[in-house]
Each structure stands twice: as structure tokens, then as C-alpha cells.
Fold:
Amino acid sequence: MGCLTANSGAAKKEWVHAEGAESAEEGVGSNLGDLCVLCVNQKTACGAHLGFSGFSFAPAASIDTQLMSLDAPYQGRFVGREHRFAVRVYFEDTDFSGMVYHARYLHFMERARSDMLARSGIDQPTAWANGVGVYAVAEMTIKYHRSARFDDALLIVSTVEHLRAAACTIHQRVMLGDEMLCRAEVLAAFTKDGRPVRQPKAWTDAFTRLLPETEGLS
Structure:
């Protein structure tokens, strides 16, 4: 997919049609630069462009990159020290009653923890391949409050609560809107050959930034 320039007759025609403007100048303005076809067709900016009426318009080379990013696997995000990871309940997650099977919450939480580590800059696959070590769940407590159902949009909120040389404690909540469906506390130990070992310093540094203000490495 390419871009149409503001001086192109095709660009003017398509934008005028999309916006219902009386003229090309009224439809596109005078200092637009390049018009992204995606923006024109959607009647809005595609999100990475140079300021026009509050939008962003980007050069053609970035359009393909943007479209490729839409096909990438979903990633969670941090809001302050909270990691947030959204999941949709599919039919396969439910039992015969239509409620989410209790063990599925463990899957949702595992995905959220893995994503939290990755978003923190922790590269688990490389550490394992290089013989540094790997995280393993040493202890977990979970409390169920209410069941999720088919097609519910859930949010797993994870926070690092305690940090030790060879382990960290992660608190997780599964939310449906403002309602907490279940919560868990997970002790993840860093191990090598089945034995606890010190976490890499870069990793403990990353975790330290996520701890409550009253906590530190113990």
C-alpha cells in the first residue's frame, strides 16, 4: 500500500469523496504533504502521521510497517507499576455450564506473567538457551470470587510485590470491568538445574522499579 500526495488529482478526488468537501482544498487543506490511502478510506488518520487537524500523517514507507504490526501477537502494557493483559473468554475456556473452567484462570495468569516479564525487558528464552536459568512457580495461592462466562472480556492485572535474590512474588487479579473475579499470589523462583540461583542483576533492577515504594530487594 502506498500514499497519494496532496497534489495528486486522485488524492484530491478520493479525499473529497470521503469527506464530502466542496473542493480539494476544503477537503485536504494546503499543507498536508502525503495522504495515506488507509487514512482516506477510513476517513481518519491511521495513527502515525505528521500533524493535520490533530492527526498524524506518515511517509509511505511507514505504512507497510504499521500494517505488519497489526498482525503481530497481542502485547500487554504497564500503567504505572501495574501490568495489564487483556484476554477474551472463548468457548474452549468454558465447561458444560458455560462458565470458565477453574484451571483456565491459571492459563490466563501465566500468559500475563510471561508478557509482564517480556515488557520489563526480561528475555527468558535467551537466558534458558545460555544456561543462565529459568523461572518456575514454587508456590501459588488462589481465591475465586465469581465465574467468568463465554465471551467475557477480562483484564489480568499483575504487580510485583516482593523481591528476593532468587525469587519474586507477583500478585494477580482477574477483572471483569470493575469486578474482581479471582486473585492469586505467585512465588516465582529462579532456578538452574532444579536449584534456586540468583536472578541476573539486570532482572532484579527491572523488578525493583516495579516494587511498592516501601519494598526493596531482600
